[in-house]
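Structure (tokenized):
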């Protein structure tokens, strides 16, 4: 089974990390199992048909061996500026396993090196 996911970024103060994995016609969303094996070719579920907070506005359809989720809410940090997260491309998945997502959080800032301490000249030295 293939998956085509169109993410809908949503800025949040403290978003929960999103973890997705596909296993056949089953999608795991942060550990919650969404079994869509009942969908036949050409079937569509309208927005709100699945009771999950990240799927509230998503339309789900099956075309042949591909399940498309259009509008999966993608929580991102309010200070995320990476275009791949703010304006994500659709994700096409062709196998089972974890699904790679754009970064939800900006990179951690590089630590600022502490200034080197200069040894003060010893008053006894001339």
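Design, position by position:
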């Amino acid at each position: 089974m293939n998956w085509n996911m169109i993410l809908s970024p949503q800025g949040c103060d403290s978003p929960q990390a999103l973890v997705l994995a596909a296993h056949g016609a089953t999608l795991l969303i942060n550990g919650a199992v969404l079994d869509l094996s009942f969908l036949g070719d050409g079937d569509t579920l309208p927005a709100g048909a699945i009771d999950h907070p990240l799927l509230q506005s998503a339309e789900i359809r099956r075309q042949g061996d591909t399940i498309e989720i259009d509008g999966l809410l993608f929580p991102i940090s309010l200070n995320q500026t990476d275009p791949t997260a703010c304006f994500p491309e659709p994700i096409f998945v062709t196998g089972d396993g974890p699904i790679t997502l754009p970064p939800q959080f900006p990179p951690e800032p590089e630590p600022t090196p502490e200034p080197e301490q200069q040894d003060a000249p010893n008053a006894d030295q001339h």
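Reviewer-requested clarification: The beta strands are 2-12, 20-23, 26-29, 32-35, 44-45, 59-63, 66-77, 91-93, 97-99. The longest strand covers residues 66-77.
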